[in-house]
Design goal:
The protein is an alpha/beta fold and 242 residues long. β4 and β5 form a beta hairpin. The chain is elongated, with a radius of gyration of 20 Å.
């Protein structure tokens, strides 16, 4: 019996024939989902490899999986997608991490900007949210959650990519207008500002850095909505470049 169930085993290495599962993943499969010997599940390493495996043996606190086949890149986009987003108030960043993971991002960088109000993040919690979202969405790559990073520092250290600088202005092109360019790119960075938008200095720095100023339509969106909307659009382009 093949199911859509997926477990995360960071110690899994490509080429292994058998795996042992215990702890929380074992508890979920056996105590909660009531899986039996012979059931088939997917195992992911969080680095881009997935494997279909069958439960071979079952003990009181461990089980053994037999690897049936590997599928590198299962559930992944054809390009690398990075979300750089100003740290948000409340638990809004949690929602962004969950949905951006489901939509295929490879990295999420919480930013400290001039108008950022909240000055801290719970990185461990964000990583747990990303793991759960990776498993739920049947991805094989676990996004990297960065620590809080100053806007100027990320601009200075960013590698070559298409940078979509989302800005609440009538002067930027619509993100849909960049589809042809995005479909040929290997790496795309989406920049989302804070609730109070970017400062003039940040806008000027993005401009001299030759970022593509991008709009998200005529409506004024909350930062978390803008992030999810932008990631969803770009994800669709990178998933199907045709």
């Amino acid at each position: 019996m093949i199911t859509g169930e997926q477990v995360y085993l960071p110690g899994f290495e490509s080429g292994q024939n058998r795996l042992t599962l215990d702890g929380a993943e074992y508890h979920h499969l056996i105590r909660v989902r009531r899986f039996k010997i012979g059931a088939e599940i997917w195992v992911v390493d969080g680095r881009g490899t997935a494997a279909l495996a069958r439960i071979n043996t079952l003990d009181s606190d461990t089980l053994e999986l037999k690897i049936l086949q590997e599928e590198p890149g299962r559930g992944e986009l054809k390009g690398k997608l990075i979300l750089a987003i100003a740290n948000l108030k409340g638990d809004h960043l949690n929602l962004v991490v969950e949905k951006a993971t489901e939509l295929g991002v490879h990295q999420i960088v919480p930013l400290l900007t001039e108008h950022t109000i909240k000055r801290g993040i719970n990185r461990d919690r964000l990583e747990r949210i990303a793991i759960a979202a990776m498993k739920q969405s049947r991805r094989s790559y676990l996004p990297e959650i960065h620590g809080l990073t100053k806007f100027q520092e990320l601009v200075r250290t960013s590698q070559a990519a298409t940078h979509l600088f989302c800005h609440a202005s009538d002067t930027g092109s619509n993100i849909m207008d960049n589809r042809k360019q995005l479909c040929t790119e290997k790496s795309v960075v989406i920049w989302i500002g804070p609730e109070g938008d970017w400062s003039k200095d940040e806008i000027d720095l993005a401009s001299v850095s030759d970022y593509t100023f991008t709009g998200l339509g005529p409506r004024r969106l909350r930062a978390e909505t803008a992030a999810i909307h932008a990631v969803g659009l770009v994800s669709a382009f990178l998933q199907d470049p045709a």
